[in-house]
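Quick one:
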Amino acid sequence: MGHNRSRLNDLAGRAAEDAVARACEARGQRVLGRRWRGRGGEIDLVTESNSEIVFVEVKKSSSHAKAALRLSETQARRIMTAAEEYLGRFATGLLTPMRIDLATVDRDGRVAFVENAVGEF
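Output:
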């Protein structure tokens, strides 16, 4: 039973990430990577918008408010660490224009964005 629940959660997470990727593209962002894993953690989506790298954390719940509450301070720190590692790939390093957004997906599959969400921790 636990294995099936884990598999369903993984599928729901991937569906939410797919919805967010489509929403990012509709906003003019180009998806550069999905589930990028560094030593410090994983980033759900990496996009580019107007020469700015945008790291997107995806959270799904019954409502946008509940989804937003699922982002913990510990997770935010891991995302920041992974983002710093990702930026190390660029000649401009940490001077590369970037932000970390939170994308929430509600039970109806609607996507909402909070720009610079992680910088607020």
